[in-house]
Design a protein that fits this description.
Blueprint: H1 6-9, H2 22-25, H3 30-37, E1 43-46, H4 53-64, E2 67-72, H5 78-91, E3 94-99, H6 106-118, E4 121-127, H7 131-134, H8 137-140, E5 144-147, H9 153-165, E6 176-178, H10 180-188, H11 194-206, E7 217-219, H12 221-228, H13 240-254, H14 258-270, H15 274-289, H16 294-310, H17 316-327, H18 334-348, H19 407-428
Parallel strand pairs: 1-4, 1-5, 2-3, 3-4, 6-7
Helix pairs in contact: 5-6, 9-10, 9-11, 10-12, 11-12, 13-14, 13-15, 14-17, 15-16, 15-17, 16-17
C-alpha cells in the first residue's frame, strides 16, 4: 500500500472534489469563478488546521493544469523559492502553496514580490493566524484574503464515505464495516479537522484484524475512541448526545447551577474536547453574564488562556474556576440582545446614511445646506456635547435595554438614559 497518509492521498485534484468551503469554491462563488475564467490571483487562506487550505490549493492547480508546489515559510529558504520561480519562468506560471505564511521573513518576501507582480508565481498562502494582524502589508496588498471555515459534521462524513469507496487512493480495496456511531464520532470529535478524521480512520483500519467468513474489518466506536484518543460523550448512534452535552453545559451555567455546570464540563473534557469547552465558556461569559458582571467575563478569558496553554488534564482547573464564577454571577443578556437587534435592523435595510458630521473629512462639504461641523466632545465640559450619531431614520432607536441584575449594569443604564435625554434636549434647542 502507498505509505502516504490517507488524508494526503485523498487530496482533491479538481475544484469540484473539495469537501466543504462552498462559500468559496461552490458553483458561482469567487474561487470557482477564478478557476472557470482562468484568471487566478494570489490569495491567503486562513483558518483552523485540517479545514481544506491545502486541498483548495491543490484543486486550483489540478483544475488549471498548473504545476503545484508546497513550501513552508518557516523552514524552506530562498533557494527553494528560487527553484519555484525558475519553474514558473519555464512553464509560465506555478501555483505555490506557502504554509505558515505569517512567518515569512523580509528576505524571502523581497524575493517573492516581483514574481507575484509578474504572475510567474501564483501564491496561495496558508495560515492559522489572522493575516490582517500577522502578514506584512506588502504581501497582503498583493493577495486576496479568504477565511476558511470549520468543516461540518456532514462534510467530514462525506469525505469518510469517499475514502471508504475509493479504490485508487482510499480504502476501497478493504472489506470495511464502519459502524454509524463510530463514523459520527470520527466526524465530531476532531472538531472540524478532516485531516485528523481521515488519518484516524486509516489507523483504525490498519490496526484492526479482519474476521469472520467475509474477512471483514469491523470498525466500532471503542476502536475509533482508542484511535483518535477521544472518548465519545455517549454511545448514541446519531451523535446527538455530543451536542446535547454542550447545550446542557451552557444552559446549566445560564441557570446558575454550579454543580451541573461542573458536571457537564467534566463530560466535555473527558471526551477530550478542550477547544469546545473553552469556546463555549467564552460565549457564556459574554452572552449570559455580560454586563451584569464584566469581571467574571474577564476572568473567563484568563481561565481559557491558561487552560489552552496548560492542556489537559491540568486545563480542567482554571476552567472549573470560571464555570463556578460564571454560574454564580448575576446574569444579563442585554448586550447580546442589543447587537442582535442592530443586526436585524441592518439586514432589513433602510437604516439610513451616516450623519454628515461623522463622515471622513474628505467627504465634508459635498452635501449642500447641511450642518457639517463635527463637535469634538473633549472641547466641552465633562467631555460631552449633544450631537447626532445614529442615522436620521433610526435616530430615536434604543438598542440597549438593561436587565438591572447588578449595580454595575444599573449604573450603566442610568448613565445611558441620562445621556439620551440630554442628547434629545440638546438637539431640540
Amino acid at each position: 500500500m502507498n505509505n502516504q497518509p490517507l488524508a494526503y492521498r485523498m487530496r482533491p485534484k479538481k475544484i469540484e472534489d473539495v469537501v466543504g468551503q462552498q462559500q468559496l469554491i461552490g458553483k458561482g462563488k469567487i474561487i470557482w469563478r477564478m478557476v472557470q475564467a482562468h484568471r487566478l490571483s494570489s490569495m491567503i487562506l486562513y483558518g483552523a488546521p485540517g479545514t481544506g487550505k491545502t486541498s483548495i490549493a491543490s484543486a486550483i492547480a489540478g483544475s488549471t493544469d498548473l504545476s503545484f508546489r508546497i513550501l513552508n515559510a518557516a523552514t524552506d529558504g530562498k533557494k527553494e523559492l528560487q527553484e519555484v520561480a525558475e519553474e514558473g519562468k519555464m512553464s509560465g506560471s506555478v501555483v505555490l502553496l506557502l504554509d505558515e505564511i505569517h512567518r515569512l521573513d523580509k528576505a524571502k518576501q523581497d524575493f517573492l514580490l516581483p514574481h507575484l507582480e509578474s504572475g510567474r508565481i501564483i501564491l496561495i498562502g496558508a495560515t492559522t493566524e489572522n493575516p490582517y494582524l500577522s502578514v506584512t502589508p506588502a504581501i497582503r496588498s498583493r493577495t486576496q484574503i479568504f477565511q476558511v471555515e470549520l468543516l461540518s459534521e456532514q462534510d467530514i462524513k462525506t469525505a469518510i464515505d469517499r475514502a471508504l469507496t475509493d479504490k485508487e487512493n482510499g480504502l476501497g480495496n478493504y472489506n470495511i464495516k464502519l459502524d454509524q456511531d463510530a463514523q459520527t464520532h470520527l466526524a465530531i470529535a476532531t472538531n472540524g479537522d478532516l485531516r485528523s478524521s481521515l488519518n484516524g480512520l486509516e489507523l483504525a483500519v490498519l490496526s484492526t484484524k479482519a474476521s469472520g467468513k467475509k474477512q471483514q474489518i469491523h470498525i466500532t466506536l471503542p476502536i475509533v475512541e482508542e484511535t483518535i484518543q477521544r472518548k465519545s460523550m455517549s454511545g448514541d448512534k446519531n451523535g446527538d448526545a455530543h451536542y446535547d452535552v454542550i447545550s446542557a453545559f451552557q444552559k446549566s451555567i445560564r441557570g446558575s447551577d454550579a454543580d451541573a455546570g461542573i458536571y457537564y464540563l467534566g463530560r466535555i473534557l473527558e471526551a477530550g474536547d478542550l477547544a469546545i469547552a473553552a469556546r463555549r465558556l467564552l460565549v457564556i461569559a459574554y452572552e449570559d453574564v455580560g454586563l451584569a458582571n464584566p469581571n467574571a467575563a474577564a476572568h473567563a478569558v484568563q481561565a481559557v488562556t491558561a487552560a489552552l496553554q496548560l492542556g489537559l488534564p491540568e486545563a480542567r482547573i482554571p476552567l472549573a474556576n470560571a464555570v463556578i464564577e460564571l454560574a454564580l454571577s448575576p446574569k444579563s443578556n442585554s448586550a447580546y440582545m442589543a447587537i442582535n437587534n442592530v443586526m436585524t435592523d441592518i439586514e432589513k435595510g433602510g437604516t439610513g446614511d451616516v450623519p454628515i458630521q461623522l463622515k471622513n473629512t474628505r467627504n465634508w462639504g459635498k452635501t449642500k445646506n447641511q450642518q457639517i461641523d463635527y463637535l469634538y466632545p473633549h472641547d466641552f465640559p465633562n467631555d460631552w456635547v449633544a450631537q447626532a450619531y445614529l442615522p436620521n431614520k433610526i435616530k430615536d432607536k434604543r438598542y440597549f435595554q438593561a436587565k438591572g441584575n447588578s449595580k454595575y449594569e444599573q449604573l450603566l443604564f442610568e448613565t445611558y438614559n441620562k445621556l439620551k435625554e440630554n442628547q434629545q434636549k440638546g438637539l431640540k434647542d
